[in-house]
Amino acid sequence: MESFRLGTTAIADHSFNKDHTFVAVARENNVTLLQRANGKIRPVPGKAGTLRFHDKTVTGVDISCDGRIVTCSQDRNATVWELQQDGTWKPFLVVLRINRAATTVRWSPDGSKFAVGSGARIIAVCYFEAENDWWISKHIKKPIRSTITSVAWHPNNVLLAAGSTDGHARVFSGYIKGVDAKPAPTAWGERLPFQHLCGEFANKTYAWVHDVAFSPSGNSLAYVSHDSSITVVYPSAPDAPPKAVINLDTSFQPFRSLVWTTEDQIVAGGYDCYPIIFGGSQSGWKQTGAIDDPKKNKKNSGPASQFDEDGMPTGSALNMFRAMDLKGTTQQPNDDDLLTIHQSPIVTLRPLDEEGGRVTTISSTGGDGQLVIYRV
Amino acid sequence: MSQIDFRRIDVDQYDPDSFISKEDLTPPCKPVSAAEQQQVATEIRGAISRGEAKAALPIALDFAPYGGDDKVKDAHLKSVIEVLSATKSAEIPSVVKALNKEQQDVLIKYLYKAMGSPQGQSQGVGAILLAWYEKTVDITGQGAVVRYMSDRRTV
């Protein structure tokens, strides 16, 4: 387990690039780029280290397989950034056409398009239009009744899952003529015209859905919602009821994010500030473990900080005098620290390293400005 | 404050595509009539008078009138409080453990509703509710409390 204190303000989203050598972190109105080398994470020096464009909170950031960065913000815009020869990032216009905040953004697996969720009850599926040198969008509207909280792509690059505050997790077709090849039929659907609704699932509580994700094969879908439950859906055939919908009410606080590590294991994190592992199959799911469990942690030794918010390296003496100066205390860590590494809820979990078809490490960020890498 | 004033304006009324209604956000629930509630209330009272409050609780919780109007809901709250009051304090943990997950969640909902209603604040009932709450949350964890807050079906 490694933890990095990247500052004191909340991190809305983060994304590593393909070879995990740098990470983009969405914080306040900017996206910060940080290099990862030799077990350390340092800011990219100079202007290239910050992507400045948005004038309201950045809500999502994602890096595609070919290295493009997309960001979205409450200012109703999204921007695609491409790395230039001179090492700077150039923003490209995205025509989103939404009248409310953008809430989340994710690239499709092949990087040819991305989906933006919004408070306008719209998912904008965006693709590049070479004539105008911009990214344009097509809207998925019906039957979305409230804000989209999360989007996730199926490995086939066409199907798109979305969670919403109307309590539903839905699977749509994000097929764009001219961009996508005709997809092979799956259990979710055979003919997939754009905006086709392939499945709609809700818990009995209709609580907010915080996050959705397809399993690695794409043959099942999981979502977490604010009723502290995790739900896994196994579709049977197009236009037929699913083979199984397993809704597991847990005794934890709600989960904000989830990651499939294998076909039969999910890691979820949220308001309990540590990741919890679930395992199961079509016949049922249950909790199988936890990472960084506070019941097993005696006393937190405090996060291992690399540098502080000013980019200064933090030696222990410096820390001590700073703590004396700011708080009038020499005691570290604080007595009211949580017994987990994260000191406030986990907002984003992402898969990181993979070995032999299973995710072995995951990264997380949250309200406390820390980036944590957990070994599963 | 002037900066956030615009948030008070209902901009949706100018949106022709706006088709959201309260019903859209509420799960479908079977309507419950006052007569059905009466029947269950009688059953519960019968069980209590036979000294079988333990058996009455699952009956009361399974009946949760999500689809009923406020009158039915209040009447059923009264029945649930009767059951809770009739159970011995020492028996609470074993009674709660015998309930299934769904029933435990409904129990938490009723405890909150009772604490917020005049019936739950009358003489002596408050202390009983707190005892139930403490012992129930020990068993269910915080999940049940979160489900009370996030569930769009109310008792």
UniProtKB/TrEMBL annotation, chain A:
SUPFAM superfamilies: WD40 repeat-like. Keywords: Actin-binding, Cytoplasm, Cytoskeleton, Repeat, WD repeat. It comes from the Eukaryota. This is Actin-related protein 2/3 complex subunit. One of its GO terms (molecular function) is ubiquitin binding. Belongs to the WD repeat ARPC1 family. One of its GO terms (cellular component) is actin cortical patch. The keyword Ion transport does not apply. Residues 287-314 are annotated as: Disordered. One of its GO terms (biological process) is actin cortical patch organization. It is found in: Cytoplasm, Cytoskeleton, Actin patch. Functions as component of the Arp2/3 complex which is involved in regulation of actin polymerization and together with an activating nucleation-promoting factor (NPF) mediates the formation of branched actin networks.
From TrEMBL, chain B:
The keyword Isomerase does not apply. The keyword Heme does not apply. Its main location: cytoplasm. One of its GO terms (cellular component) is actin cortical patch. It holds the Pfam family P16-Arc. One of its GO terms (biological process) is Arp2/3 complex-mediated actin nucleation. It is found in: Cytoplasm, Cytoskeleton. It comes from the Eukaryota. One of its GO terms (molecular function) is actin filament binding. Belongs to the ARPC5 family. Functions as component of the Arp2/3 complex which is involved in regulation of actin polymerization and together with an activating nucleation-promoting factor (NPF) mediates the formation of branched actin networks. Arp2/3 complex plays a critical role in the control of cell morphogenesis via the modulation of cell polarity development. Functions as a component of the Arp2/3 complex which is involved in regulation of actin polymerization and together with an activating nucleation-promoting factor (NPF) mediates the formation of branched actin networks. This is Actin-related protein 2/3 complex subunit 5.
